[in-house]
Design a protein that fits this description.
Strand content: 15-25%
Strand order of the largest sheet: 1-2-3-13-14-15-16-17
Oligomer: single chain
CATH superfamily of the largest domain: Phosphoenolpyruvate-binding domains
Largest sheet: 8 strands, parallel, barrel
Helix content: 25-40%
Number of strands: 17
Number of domains: 3
Distance between the termini: 11 Å
Structural class: alpha/beta
CATH topology of the largest domain: TIM Barrel
CATH class of the largest domain: Alpha Beta
């Protein structure tokens, strides 16, 4: 049985070698994700070379997705890699390039003292640590904070300020350098982080085309500002990633499932692929089996109509990367096998006849005919791939 739902695997220290990549492909990886927030250009080039050569040897089509860092604010280098901070203590945040301690930490965004205000909440490491701003000194480039929720403060962990408008360019100079390098490697997709408007997608698409690449551009939805204009972002993008990690910090966590379903539904209607990402099998970073809630999370995303599910830390740095992919593969196959009518009905809806889109109507009729005659495959002649993508929108049972 063909598995329709694709599995995206992040390549990291746990899997960045030839043998591991081959095992990932064997157990079900369809897309290799390169996280340009970490690793050197040489690391990523080696990974691409391994993926391409192994996929060719096995006769499999494995896509490569480069994920740009974007304007992500991160903690700088901490002494000994991590320092413990206690609830109630004072902690200074500085834009100076220093080694962090338990009383003062560096961040890589010099404008943070300008944008933050007294009373603002600062979340670190996906919300595991919480600070409250008590004073600011723009001259020194420092914020004084009180630790609300303490813990181990590690190097290079993400920093979020919910409900604070950070004045920063959506595409950094690092992103442009990484983009040019990634496109030179022939990546298939480019993911843009922290998308807030369709204009940002237009800019990155323009850059991609200027480099002579036809790579698809994926908009990562991580900021609340993107939700009101989600239809416009979908229209300008080649696909969407529901990046639930940062999104779940920027908005109340109870809203994330609703937003996830809304985005998946809009993508299905528009015929654009959608990836559901972050913490899908998070416990498998250190455990050989998922929790029941995680299994349900993956299954429900597939039943909602997601085209792909993504593994992040599970395959990048986890102890059980191959088991994680195998579990995700089994969940996807089980959903598709036991709920075929539901799976097909998500896409098999008549197009909007009022728009009189000839290609859309032909695609719909093609899938309908294939189902009626019991075809074993659908072959389409296409120059850009658009026709094939439109046919896939209606979720045929055959390849």
């Amino acid at each position: 049985m063909i598995r329709h739902t694709k599995i995206v695997c992040t390549i990291g220290p746990a899997t960045r070698n030839e043998e591991s990549i081959e095992r990932l492909i064997d157990v079900g990886m369809n897309v290799a994700r390169l996280n340009f927030s970490h690793g050197s250009h040489q690391d990523h080039k080696e990974t691409v070379d391994w993926v391409r050569s192994i996929a060719a040897k096995k006769g499999k089509a494995i896509s490569i997705l480069m994920d740009l860092q974007g304007p992500k604010i991160r903690v700088g280098q901490m002494k000994e890699g991590a320092q413990k901070v206690e609830a109630g203590q004072e902690l200074i945040i500085t834009s100076s390039d220093i080694e962090g301690t338990s009383t003062i930490i560096p961040i890589d965004f010099p404008e943070l003292p300008r944008d933050a205000s007294v009373g603002d909440t600062i979340l670190i490491d996906d919300g595991l640590l919480e600070l409250r701003v008590t004073a600011k000194d723009k001259g020194k480039g420092e914020l004084t904070t009180e630790v609300v929720v303490g813990g181990l403060l590690k190097s290079r962990k993400g920093v979020n300020l919910p409900n604070v408008a950070i004045q920063t360019s959506p595409i950094t100079e690092k992103d442009f350098e990484d983009l040019k390098f990634g496109l030179s490697l022939g990546v298939d997709f480019v993911a843009l982080s922290f998308v807030r408007s369709p204009r940002e997608i237009q800019e990155i698409v323009s850059r991609v085309r200027a480099e002579g690449s036809q790579a698809g551009v994926i908009a990562k939805i991580e900021k609340p500002e993107a939700i009101p204009v989600i239809d416009d972002i979908i229209e300008e993008s080649d696909g969407i990633m529901v990046a639930r990690g940062d999104l779940g910090i920027e908005i109340p966590s109870e809203q994330v499932p609703i937003i996830q379903k809304l985005i998946i539904d809009r993508c299905r209607a528009a015929g654009k692929p959608v990836i559901t990402a972050t913490q899908m099998l998070d416990s498998m970073i250190s455990n050989p089996r998922p929790t029941r809630a995680e299994s349900s999370d993956v299954a429900n995303a597939i039943m909602d109509g997601t085209d792909a599910v993504m593994l992040s830390g599970e395959t990048a740095a986890g102890e059980y990367p191959f088991e994680s992919v195998a579990v995700m593969d089994r969940i996807a196959r089980n959903v598709e096998e036991n709920y075929p009518a539901l799976y097909n009905s998500l896409g098999f809806k008549k197009p909007d006849w009022e728009e009189k889109q000839v290609i859309e109507s032909v695609a719909y009729s093609c899938v309908s005919m294939a189902e009626n005659v019991g075809a074993v495959a659908i072959a389409t002649i296409t120059h850009s791939g658009s026709t094939a993508r439109r046919i896939s929108k209606f979720r045929p049972n055959v390849p």
